[in-house]
Design a protein that fits this description.
CATH architecture of the largest domain: 3-Layer(aba) Sandwich
Strand order of the largest sheet: 2-3-4-1-5
Shape: elongated
Order of helices and strands: EHEHEHEEHHHHH
CATH superfamily of the largest domain: P-loop containing nucleotide triphosphate hydrolases
Strand content: 5-15%
Number of domains: 2
């Protein structure tokens, strides 16, 4: 049995689709080639298609290799648009990509991963069986995942005893992984600013600073509270429901199941969104 040629990750932005692709390459111990869709496009006739061919040649030469297309929706939109020359050029690029995907033979271990925030605008030929036929929905992190994200971001940070990561995870329902990372970074910056302010005040008072720096020595609960007061969800409820509706549509067609479940998410009424696009 021949292995699958590729997989498509789709879901809200900031949920770790790119990180998952990198982790897969690390787990498999193979080479990893990452490309953003717009990097393949140029203004010269035929050069974009040549870039696609060169990219796949590079991946085959580095086999076993994972070829990762970030923001694949920028180069794999539905063909046959009403635009002029630009639309025709985009169609040629898609055709070249599909041809190269079909040409990834069993003799070369090249696996293709695509990531997108707009799965509804992808050309149907991209996700047909034999190409990127495995569709995986990467949802917003649930409670347990949010706690793991906080722990991963703060594993090398000096935390005060009053910092409760479980309470922070419960208070950040609806936040993406990128939003949680931003909270951790802001809290660390708040601690650094306070430390600098204390050192400046002590120097102004004529006090000699210790060689190992000034206070505070830890990131405290107050620093996180200040950071969370300015934090916001980058993904709105309407956008989440749209992804949920698309995922339900794929499952109704016999597609793969959702990658994760968050019991606190609202139920999806597909009738609100028509065909889920």
């Amino acid at each position: 049995m021949r292995p699958s040629k590729g997989v498509l990750f789709y879901g809200p932005p900031g949920c770790g689709k790119t990180l998952i692709a990198s982790a897969i390459a690390a787990e498999c111990g193979c080479n990893f080639v990452s490309i953003k869709g717009p990097e393949l496009l140029t203004m010269y006739f035929g050069e974009s298609e040549a870039n696609v061919r060169a990219l796949f040649d590079k991946a085959r030469a580095a086999a076993p290799c994972i070829l990762f297309f970030d923001e694949i929706d920028s180069i794999a939109k539905q063909r046959g648009g009403s635009g002029g020359g630009a639309s025709e050029a985009a169609d040629r690029v898609i055709n070249q990509i599909l041809t190269e995907v079909d040409g990834v033979g069993s003799s070369k271990s090249v696996f293709i991963i695509g990531a997108t925030n707009r799965p509804d605008i992808l050309d149907a030929a991209v996700t047909r069986p034999g190409r990127l036929d495995q569709l995986l929905y990467i949802p917003l992190p649930d409670l347990e995942t949010r706690l793991c994200i906080f722990e991963a971001n703060l594993k090398r940070s000096p935390l005060a005893e009053d910092v409760d990561l479980n309470a922070m995870a419960e208070a950040t329902h609806g936040f993406s992984g990128a939003d949680l990372t931003e909270i951790c970074q802001r809290a660390a910056k708040n601690a650094i600013r306070e430390s600098i302010a204390v050192d400046v005040a002590r120097e102004a008072a004529g006090e000699k600073l210790p060689a190992d720096g000034g206070a505070p020595e830890f990131i405290t609960r107050a620093h996180f509270e200040t950071a969370m007061s300015d934090a916001r969800c980058s993904v709105g409820d309407a956008e989440v429901r749209k992804f949920e509706a698309y995922n339900e549509k794929m499952k109704a067609k016999g597609g793969p199941a959702k990658a994760g479940e968050d019991g606190a998410e609202p139920a999806v009424d597909e009738s609100m969104y028509g065909d889920g696009e």
